[in-house]
Amino acid sequence: MTQVSKLDGFPCYEIVSPSLKYQQAIYLSAGIHGDESGSTEGMLAWAEAHVDRLHSIPLLIYPCMNPWGLVNNSRFDAQGVDLNRVWELPQNPFIQYITERCKELDFKLVLNLHEDFDGLGVYLYEPIRGGRPTEHAEQILKTVSPWITRDPRRKIDGRSAKNGIIRPRPTNPPEDGIPEALYFYLRYKCPTFTFETPSEFDLNLRIKAQASMIKKAISIAHS
Question: Cα separations (Å) of 5 from 65, 66, 93, 164, 215?
Fold first, then answer.
């Protein structure tokens, strides 16, 4: 783990596995919204459970994108900026570093870990350009059933949801800016998933749900 930036008085870290030099990368990030602690804790739980395998998986990990927000339980950074809406023309030095760093790489999977204050269960985003989607989103969500049910809403943040799966069109981005997942999907054209656990549920259950989704998604990418 290497400190690559500092924001609002807090260090920002990057984790790179040795096998990243030889394979297409798997990108993981968490904690871009500081009030979504289950995302960072879920990533940590997954990593601790798979320490013996981490060196062989081509990982690029940013375990906490907004450390000030995490400490202060804030969605935003210290300047009141939503760091998940600034990826088109980033001014934030940490995000600038990430976008430059990633220009050197090809990706086969991108995972962004989030939580939802209004969530009624687990759900995920899988952007899609068209055509028949794979079963991967369904397979990933099946793994959370021992801990948290799927969000039953048919509309989540104004987008249609079906059985916990939202498939937004890349041509219809949020009005307030380009999020991390859409940036990676458009630039690298690889499978991209955003996991959402309900932040008002028990933390231990959210951690287990996040860790199980990471494990399944990476297993699919390596199959």
Answer: 10, 11, 7, 35, 28
Give pLDDT tens digits for 87-129.
Answer: 988 889 999 999 999 998 999 999 999 999 999 999 999 998 8
- pLDDT value, residue 46: 97
* CA nearest to 137, candidates 197, 206, 84, 216: 216
Interacting residues of 84 by C-beta distance below 8 A, sequence separation 6+:
32, 33, 177, 179, 180
CATH assignment of 2-222?
Answer: 3.40.630.10
Q: Quote the CA–CA distance of 43 and 63 in Å, as a whole number.
A: 7
- Residue 170: the pLDDT is 85
Helices (H) and strands (E) in the chain, counts: 7, 10
